[in-house]
Amino acid sequence: MTIDVLTLFPDMIDSALSFSIPGRAQKADLVDIRAHQLRTWAIDRRGTVDDTPYGGGPGMILRVDVAHAALGALDHSHKAHRVMLSPDGELFDQSMAEEFATKKKLVILCGRYEGFDARIEKYVDQKVSIGSFVLSGGELAALTIIDAVTRLTPGVLGNAESLLEETFEADLTEYPQYTRPEKYRGMNVPDVLLSGHHAEIQKWRDSQRQNLERT
Ligand code: SAM
Questions:
Q1: 110 within ligand 1 shell (Cβ under 6 A)
Q2: Is the dihedral of CA 50, 12, 41, 142 positive or negative?
Q3: pLDDT band at 168 (very low <50, low <70, confident <90, very high)
Q4: Is 162 in contact with 199 (CB distance < 8 Å)?
Q5: What distance in angstroms lies between residue 84's CA and the mean position of ligand 1's atoms?
Q6: Which fold, 165-208?
Q7: What is the mean pLDDT of the chain?
Q8: For ligand 1, what atom is nearest to the CA of residue 88?
Q9: Phi-psi map region of 166: left, alpha, beta (phi>0 left; psi -120 to 50 alpha)
Q10: Three-class SS state of 168
Q11: Does this model's pTM top 0.85?
Q12: Chain centroid, CA 213 distance in Å
């Protein structure tokens, strides 16, 4: 899978994704994540990518011609799934992550300042938000999405079984997990987990998973 990120701060993407699971996934060539500087497609040599809003108002707006040129360069024949990040987009969740993980190529467009000229929506497939709050830019949203999608990519997690019992699978939470010490300040690990009885452990774990609609 290839993920192209269009951003004014490519270092934010590169540095955050060099660690842990996304870092290993890239080293193993299971995902190819590339952060591109939006100013590469600026309208002038000074690197201009934004302008003041028509009708007046505060802040700067990212230009449609710049973003469109960048999308065209990265995804010439529009084969990728193009995602634009915006606080008023469709709410990102685990089922959207699963859907994205099936795509061969994703292009993620990160806004800054007051966001994009509204006309860019004609050139993207989906407008996505990671929550009901306003971030300063799309990079942290892109990183959230990439992290969630990467761990679902086949071969990325060492033990694929761990995905099957994770929270949100089958609309259930994961069961509670424990490690050493066995006793901590009056709190004990449930006896069944120390029993070595695999069928009983599985039964207990199944009983602990909660329906997400009820939690
Ligand atoms: N003026 C815009 C508004 O009121 O909707 C907010 C722009 S925000 C300061 C700059 C950029 O951050 C947005 O274009 C978007 O790419 C990103 N962003 C901010 N909040 C986000 C969220 N909750 N989910 C996804 N992206 C977000």
A1: yes
A2: negative
A3: confident
A4: no
A5: 10
A6: Trp Operon Repressor; Chain A (1.10.1270)
A7: 95
A8: 5
A9: beta
A10: coil
A11: yes
A12: 23
